[in-house]
Amino acid sequence: MTALATPPSTLAERALTAYKPFWAKRFGTAPFLPTSRAEMEQLGWDSCDVIIVTGDAYVDHPSFGMAVIGRVLEAQGFRVGIIAQPDWQSVDAFKALGKPNLYFGVAAGNMDSMINRYTADRKIRSDDAYTPGGVAGKRPDRATLVYTQRCKEAWNDVPVIIGGIEASLRRIAHYDYWQDKVRRSILVDSKADLLLYGNAERAIVEVTHRLARRVPIAQITDVRGTAFIRRRDDPTAQGWFELDSTEVDRPGRIDEHINPYLMPEEAAASQDTSCAREASSSSPPAEAVVAMPVSKKSGRVTLPDRAKTVIRLPSYEQVKSDAVLYAHANRVLHLETNPGNARALVQRHSSAGVDRDVWINPPPIPLTTAEMDHVFDLPYARSPHPRYADENGSHDGATKIPAWEMIRFSVNIMRGCFGGCTFCSITEHEGRIIQSRSEDSIIREIEDIRDRVKGFTGVISDLGGPTANMWRIGCKSPEIEAACRKPSCVYPGICSNLKTDHGPLVQLYRRARQLRGVKKILIGSGLRYDLAVQSPEYVKELVTHHVGGYLKIAPEHTETGPLSKMMKPGMGTYDRFKQMFDQYSAQAGKKQYLIPYFIAAHPGTTDEDMMNLALWLKRHGFKADQVQTFYPSPMATATAMYHTDLNPLKGITRDAQRSEKVDIVRGEKRRRLHKAFLRYHDPNNWPLLREALKRMGRADLIGNGKHQLIPSYQPATDGSYVSARRKNSTPTGAKTSVVTRGRVLTQHTGLPPRPGTKKKV
Q: Residue 262 has what pLDDT?
């Protein structure tokens, strides 16, 4: 530990609507934020205060990040221009709107540019849902780095602020799946001036107003939800109490680690302190007991107030070469994600003999319901920019933007997720505290879609968000919520402090479907069914009125091993939900089907686990048309498992007997095998599966019996069967109840799959 001088004062959070508007507010609201000088001139602008550069086509809709940030800043009185999908081969496209008065804002788009471009098998995708016509290749790999470089080339004296999910998930040293190595923080590689992570409305408004007051960007170091670089010898770093992360969670000693699934009261009791009392104290004590895992063997550690404490993570050079320290750093980062108790993080990056620190301030304070309403009630055009329209003003054919088509009739009602799934990026980006809109705001948006969006036929495709049924659900106690350090509120069971009342959501559904002109409201977001079963009234309402023939849910696996590494519930909860689903469907006189999604090759999955999953699929008559393979996205806990072979959920130590090793599915052949188990019905996979089953000692599953997984024969190229015992039989020899054809997108996007076909066989 290093005790430093008096810490700087912290700035109190301000409401988004509490700022005095910038003088350019007099120009009013733009129909679309300008994308050319001609559009700027029509608005009477001589320059832009802020220029946003994005890898997505410009759609003025609250589901697209550039539109949200642009409209939020416009409401503050700033003139915002958009450079969408610029030609990055030269600097010219980045000068199209002239020199911004305040800064460039750079984002790769709604998706990470590498995940957008490459499949989980590192193959180039043939399309891009965020580009007109779905054309691929309209953004560069690592778009944030490339765009930032071009902005600096255009005007090197203009600050560049990076954000979006690509920057958010790369704010510290991180494992990069595409290069199979640990990369530096994107701040260091991009040379940007500031990074904003998460949903950044609160931070971007504060930073922009400060820059408008001519505060140098290098002095903006106290805004939550931001990260920046400073030299280690920078005098402005004084005033912090520095705590080495290995004193928070020791990776090198055999110490007792706290159970990450303890209730907050139990964790507090183990340290003889009260979470609620610590969180609700009006004035922090001179010395506070550390609320992090503390070894009973090593005794209590006392620290100054956490607002004055910064945790030093192992340096980039250390985590790059030491898997134990990488897993440790990932674990500590995830422990410091609750805005109520998170501390600042710092990580050294050395280059050319210069030591620099990447400072990551605590996460932003979640938006209130009133602030969420403000953001979503802004005057979005709710359509792509006219530049993408054809000569008839239509956005069809070559001008159609698939991602917009997917969400044009949907409504986002909330943000965040407290599920904590280790493979998902929602929690790392949006946080685990649910931020909900008001019912009135949601109803206004439905009416806006009905009255303004071209092509509306009366069907709302979704009322949801990261999940369908976490709206207005949260902790029963603000004090406990502020002190809690659990990675999930619903794993391994639902927290006793979590409200599970779906009554408000049922009321919203009923009010929405009674609106004039609204024929049907479907629920397309992923359903957290372990929460849903706590409210039979909700399940009945959902199944009776809001399921369009099939409902997608994501058990992800059937076996305990991989489920424990995913932090997902067991299949017993799925069975309970399916029983309720079938019961209420029958009562409504409807034939409806559950469509479960599963992940292949997730860390912790053995070949036997995949075999058992395949047997479950066949036993229940499911045939997956396309499958989802684990994709190691930056900063996710499952990605740390993939890179290190260790389980950060169980604590990290160098003692091989105490650290939990994780079975990792690497190599093209083994990944293909796990995918093949999910598509056991595809004859192209049978040779690979036969070889694997024989190697596993399960040759009894090869044959034409009802309870065997794959047949002993193989179709010939002419359609006949080779060595078939029963000619003219179906290849699988099994009955199927539902055949689904859907496209499964990358897990962290939150986008629904393309509607598919269903038929009774």
A: 42
